[in-house]
Every structure is written in structure tokens, then in C-alpha cells.
Q: What sequence folds into this?
């Protein structure tokens, strides 16, 4: 057994080193490879000057016609027209050198605006880490606060470093030119298979450790900016399972999960949707609308996190005392409602970075609509959840469900925020508020313990968000999205079912892929650390001292009897939880 | 000497303290406790889990007095802490065999 664990640990190390070695060795050194710009002085010039409609100022020389194409009269005419336009522009440009210098400055400033936007919204999303930590800690018990908060704290650096090592390279290694931030095209290696007459992008393979200032490298300031922005999105996914697994997850197991999330679990599906992979090409390849569209990440970020949370929670098992033998649930009180609600506000604030920032461009003025749609969905989500609890379910407005409802609305609007109207945003937000309440009750009924509702908020509503784009997209934005001409339109606005099918395929792929990856990772981690759960004694007494070595609230007297229900219906209650329960329950 | 231990409603503490001061009781010990008597708890529900709120917060007030003061103190506490509704509380009297003031080492009646 010890040999097996040692072998497994070394296997993981070898795998990571191997991937890095291959990735770093493959940096192309051709002179015509894109030249990275680490200082930022060469990013943004006259070529990045476009008008509001996207028409470029600079006319470039048309590509030379091959001899075969020259025989086609239509192609020859198009080439001749383009050549004349280029010649006219060049003649004018040569007469006005000052205008061209000004164009360089304007182009640099345009790109600078977009850099600023992307970075500042990225900083807002980073602050959401605090929001998640506060929501999760507030909705769980005082005896575990140091541990719960520490998980949410450490997931930030752990996820980031994994993403820096190889996750970003896997996800965005083949995304192509970073259009809004200067057009650097160094992320140009996508592992592709050719099947059924189409290319299927599977994984990127460029940008490991953000290295290389020679041509072919990625030490470019636009790449770094993109990395920061995408990293904070990855960390949002990474922190979702800590909520579903709170109060019974060994810190060692959590840390190994932290190694896996940024490196491999998140980037695979992410590449398929945002890295130019096959899900984004469902429209171009198979005519399914604009392919799987996800503006800010209902599926890439939230549904991924929700699926990981679901499978992991199922594998690790419920908290001691949550479920009785007959399946009914016991009350485990949230210890700090103000913390949970303040955390929810922090998340709602950070979402103003999450959604509008995903344009990667302040020059794309749709951001006003995006931000407002985000806000509206959060409001209707909170209200719908509150009223549903009050009038239908428990006959009292429940603060924890107010939080879950607002967050569900935000998760659901994340995918369609750029493509729907205010009415659409409000309606789908309201649906998500009701959906999250029913989902929480559902998972309780099937025996999945989710202390903070993470699976319901992020998993279920992440899927709803994507599907709702297929319904509510109103055709006012998104011309050319994923390489498909025309604006993104859903069923209710005459777009037919194709967009909906593309979203459904994407959500299904998300569920299957993340379920498999989570299962593998948690099986391997379980072998390495010898089980995910602490002993029953530790779980009942509180994880803070045994796991973290310090109290979350030192000096406070805690009523552990009220906080820890004992499951009813078992002759030996200790047998109600899976895992190492050999230690008899002691009294504290 | 006797210890008078009174379980009272928390908002009555200031009134009882003032009333005891008027009859010459200048010292006491107070702790926050939870309890219930014959009143039943109510059932609440949190996200699908039912639970009963049995324990109600109370204040336990302890004061040690000499034998001749017991009746007067009992009367004062009972009249001040009473609201007429259930949950008003109870008073218990314990015999105290010895007592000592730590600062001066005075014992028994002089220490009270």
C-alpha cells in the first residue's frame, strides 16, 4: 500500500515535468513567428485603429493571387480592386506622415483602453475570492471557520500557479490573435484532430510558464494581461467545490485538488469553448447557430465548478449528522448570516468585472448593456428565490436563500449577458431564483450534502444560463461570433433551435468531461492521502485545531451540541458516514 | 448564609439589580444561560431541515445573603422579575456552609 502511494506520487510529478518539458521544448524559433512584446511599446499602432463598426483605418496589401486563382475572373477582379484600394491608401498615407503618426498614437491608446479595462475588471473578479470565502464561512459552523476560510484562501495561489504552469497553455495555447489588445498572434498551437471532414480542436499547447521573449515565445504584455484575466475566472471555478465539501474535507486532500484544478481539470473544457476548440466551432462546422456561445462563463466557469462540486460531494459523502437513516435532513445552522450576505454583495460587485470585463475591450460599448443585464438578473433572482421560499416552501423569507437566489441570477446571466435584452435578463434571472430553491431541496432529497448550495447555484444555473441563451438571445449583438456571420439569435427571436442545440451539446460535454475528470482526480488523491475525510472525532470537535492548528474564533465558547446533530435511526451513528470512522465518537 | 439563585428573563436584569440595591444588596454574580420549563419549543425550518427551538436565553443571578435577609430578597426578586407571562423563571435557595472574602480573609457573615 505504501509502495503504491509512493509510486502514484512520483507518477504525478513525472507527468507534470513531462508536460512542461514537451511544452517548453516546442517553442518555435522561426524568424517569421509572431514577435512578443514584453515592454508594451510595440503593442497597438495604426493597424489597431478601427471605427465603431469595426472597419480598419489601414488598408493592407492584398495577398498575392496564385496562378490558378488568377484565371478566375471574379477573384481577379476582387484582387485588382483590393490592390487599387491599397495603392490609393498608400499614396494618401505617404502624403500625410503626421496623420499616420497620429494614427499610431490613437491605435496605441485604443489598445491601452482595452488593457486597462481587462486588467481592472480582472482585479474586481479577484476580489470575488473574498466574497466566496465569506459566503461559505458564514453559512457553515463556527468550529470550522479557520479551515473553511483557509481553503478559500489557498485556492487562489494554488489554482493560479497551476494555471501558470500549464493550464493557460492548455486552454489558450491555440486561441490565435488577441484581437482587442493589439493582435499578437503567438498563441498559435492547438492540438487538433481531423474527423468527419472537420477540424476538432482539443487542447492548446503553447504558453507554458508564460515564457519566451524571442519570436515564437509568449512573454508579451497582451498575453500576460489575458492570463491575469483568465486566471481569476479559473480561480472562481476552483473555489466552488470548497463550498460543497466544507466541514469534512482534509486540507491535504484539498491541496492536491488545488494542484489539479488549474493544471488540467478547468482548461480542457475551457479550451473547447474559449480557446478555439471544437465546441466553439459547432456553428462554423455544423451550422448549429454560432456554436456553443458562452460570453463570460456560465458553463466554462460556473457549471464546471458545479459539476466538480457534485461529483466530489457524492464521492466524499455528507457531513456527519446531516442525513438520518430515513433520508430526512437535520438542521446544521449557519453561524454568521451577516458575513454570508456581505459576501454575496461582494460577489455581486465583483460580477461587474466578471461579465462586462469579458468583452476584453472598453471600446466595445455593449458593456453598458452587459452590466445592466447582469444587475437585473441578480435582482430578479434574489426576489424570486425569496418569494418562492416565503409563499411556497417554508413560509418564511430565508436569508441564505436570498443569497443563493441573487447568486443564481448572476450565474445564469453570465452566459447570455451580452446577447439579451433587459426583459430577457429579468425573466431568466427570476427563473433561476426559483430553480435554485427547488434544486437545493432536490439534492437534499437524493442524499447529496451541499452546505452552501454551490451545486445548485453554479452547476444547475450554469446550465440554465447557457440554455437560456438559446432561447432569449435577441439578435442585437454578436455578428461574426465564433466565425459565424450574423448576430446571435435564440428561439424566442426567430433564431430557431440551432443555438439552443449548440448550448445543450456544450452543457452535456461539460457535465460528462468534468464528471470523468473529477472522478479520476478524487480517486487518485484519495489513494495518495488515504481518504478525503478527517476522523469522526475531528469532524465533530471541529476541524480548526486538528487541521489548521488555530481557532477561527479564539476565546469564544461554542455550543457544539446544538451545532452537531446526531443522525437518527442508526444503532451506531458513527456508521452513518463513509470513510475512516474507526475512532469512536468522544464527547467534547 | 444562603445563596439565592434566580433564573430570570434577560431584559429584567437591570430592574432586579436596581431593586436589590435599594434593599442593600450590593454584590451579585450574573451568567447567561439557556433553558426551558413547561412551555413547548416551536418548530422552524431551514432550507428543508426541520428543527425545534427548545432553549430560550435566560439570565442566572446568584447572590449570597445572611439568613435573616432571605425572605426580603426573595420577595424583591419575585415582584420585580415577574411579567405574568410564561417563562418568567424560578428562584432556588441553597444553604452555604462557609464563605471568605479573598482580599481581607474575613470569613462567613463578615464576608457576605
A:
Amino acid at each position: 500500500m505504501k509502495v503504491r502511494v509512493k509510486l502514484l506520487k512520483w507518477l504525478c510529478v513525472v507527468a507534470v515535468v513531462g508536460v512542461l518539458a514537451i511544452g517548453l521544448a516546442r517553442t518555435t524559433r522561426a524568424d517569421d513567428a509572431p514577435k512578443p512584446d514584453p515592454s508594451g511599446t510595440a503593442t497597438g499602432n495604426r493597424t489597431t485603429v478601427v471605427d465603431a463598426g469595426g472597419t480598419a483605418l489601414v488598408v493592407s496589401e492584398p495577398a498575392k493571387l496564385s496562378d490558378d486563382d488568377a484565371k478566375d475572373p471574379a477573384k481577379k477582379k476582387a484582387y485588382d480592386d483590393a490592390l487599387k484600394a491599397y495603392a490609393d491608401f498608400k499614396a494618401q498615407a505617404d502624403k500625410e506622415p503626421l496623420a499616420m503618426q497620429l494614427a499610431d498614437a490613437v491605435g496605441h491608446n485604443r489598445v491601452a483602453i482595452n488593457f486597462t479595462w481587462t486588467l481592472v475588471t480582472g482585479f474586481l473578479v479577484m476580489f470575488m475570492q473574498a466574497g466566496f470565502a465569506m459566503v461559505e464561512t458564514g453559512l457553515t459552523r463556527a468550529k470550522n471557520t479557520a479551515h473553511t476560510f483557509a481553503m478559500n484562501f489557498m485556492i487562489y495561489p494554488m489554482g493560479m500557479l497551476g494555471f501558470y504552469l500549464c493550464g493557460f497553455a492548455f486552454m489558450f495555447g491555440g486561441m490565435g490573435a488577441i484581437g482587442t489588445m493589439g493582435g499578437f498572434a503567438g498563441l498559435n498551437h492547438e492540438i487538433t484532430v481531423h474527423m468527419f471532414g472537420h477540424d476538432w480542436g482539443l487542447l492548446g499547447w503553447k504558453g507554458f510558464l508564460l515564457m519566451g521573449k524571442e519570436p515564437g515565445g509568449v512573454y508579451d504584455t497582451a498575453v500576460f494581461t489575458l492570463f491575469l484575466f483568465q486566471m481569476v475566472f479559473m480561480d472562481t471555478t476552483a473555489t466552488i467545490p470548497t463550498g460543497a465539501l466544507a466541514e469534512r474535507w482534509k486540507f491535504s486532500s484539498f491541496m492536491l485538488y488545488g494542484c489539479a484544478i488549474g493544471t488540467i481539470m478547468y482548461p480542457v473544457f475551457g479550451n473547447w469553448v474559449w480557446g478555439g476548440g471544437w465546441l466553439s466551432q459547432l456553428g462554423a462546422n455544423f451550422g448549429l447557430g454560432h456554436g456553443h456561445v458562452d460570453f463570460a462563463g456560465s458553463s466554462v466557469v460556473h457549471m464546471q465548478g458545479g459539476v466538480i462540486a457534485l461529483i466530489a460531494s457524492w464521492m466524499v459523502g455528507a457531513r456527519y449528522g446531516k442525513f438520518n437513516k430515513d433520508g430526512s435532513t437535520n438542521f446544521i445552522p449557519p453561524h454568521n448570516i451577516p458575513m454570508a450576505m456581505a459576501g454575496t454583495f461582494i460577489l455581486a460587485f465583483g460580477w461587474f468585472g466578471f461579465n462586462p470585463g469579458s468583452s476584453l475591450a472598453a471600446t466595445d460599448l455593449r458593456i453598458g448593456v452587459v452590466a445592466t443585464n447582469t444587475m437585473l438578473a441578480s435582482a430578479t433572482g434574489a426576489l424570486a428565490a425569496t418569494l418562492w421560499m416565503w409563499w411556497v416552501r417554508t413560509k418564511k423569507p430565508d436569508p441564505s436563500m436570498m443569497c443563493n437566489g441573487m447568486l443564481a441570477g448572476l450565474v445564469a446571466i453570465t452566459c447570455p449577458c451580452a446577447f439579451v435584452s433587459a426583459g430577457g435578463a429579468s425573466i431568466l434571472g427570476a427563473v433561476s431564483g426559483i430553480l435554485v430553491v427547488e434544486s437545493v431541496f432536490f439534492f437534499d432529497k437524493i442524499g447529496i450534502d451541499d452546505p452552501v448550495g454551490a451545486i445548485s447555484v453554479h452547476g444547475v444555473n450554469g446550465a440554465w444560463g447557457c440554455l437560456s441563451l438559446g432561447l432569449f438571445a435577441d439578435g442585437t449583438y454578436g455578428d461574426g461570433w465564433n466565425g459565424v456571420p450574423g448576430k446571435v439569435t435564440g428561439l424566442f427571436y426567430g433564431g430557431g433551435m440551432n443555438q439552443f442545440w449548440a448550448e445543450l451539446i456544450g452543457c452535456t460535454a461539460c457535465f460528462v468531461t468534468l464528471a470523468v475528470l473529477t472522478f479520476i482526480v478524487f480517486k487518485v488523491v484519495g489513494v495518495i492521502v488515504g481518504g478525503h475525510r478527517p476522523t469522526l472525532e475531528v469532524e465533530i470537535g471541529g476541524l480548526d485545531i486538528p487541521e489548521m492548528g488555530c481557532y477561527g474564533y479564539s476565546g469564544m465558547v461554542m455550543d457544539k451540541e446544538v451545532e452537531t446533530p446526531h443522525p437518527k435511526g442508526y444503532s451506531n451513528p458513527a456508521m452513518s458516514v463513509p470513510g475512516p470512522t474507526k475512532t469512536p465518537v468522544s464527547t467534547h | 448564609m444562603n445563596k439565592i439563585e434566580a433564573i430570570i428573563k434577560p431584559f429584567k436584569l437591570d430592574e432586579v439589580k436596581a431593586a436589590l440595591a435599594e434593599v442593600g444588596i450590593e454584590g451579585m454574580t450574573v451568567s447567561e444561560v439557556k433553558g426551558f420549563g413547561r412551555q413547548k419549543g416551536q418548530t422552524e425550518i431551514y432550507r428543508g431541515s426541520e428543527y425545534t427551538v427548545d432553549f430560550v436565553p435566560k439570565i442566572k443571578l446568584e447572590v449570597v445573603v445572611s439568613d435573616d435577609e432571605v425572605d426580603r430578597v426573595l420577595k424583591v426578586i419575585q415582584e420585580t422579575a415577574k411579567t405574568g407571562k410564561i417563562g418568567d423563571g424560578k428562584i432556588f435557595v441553597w444553604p452555604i456552609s462557609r464563605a471568605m472574602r479573598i482580599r481581607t480573609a474575613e470569613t462567613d457573615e463578615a464576608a457576605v
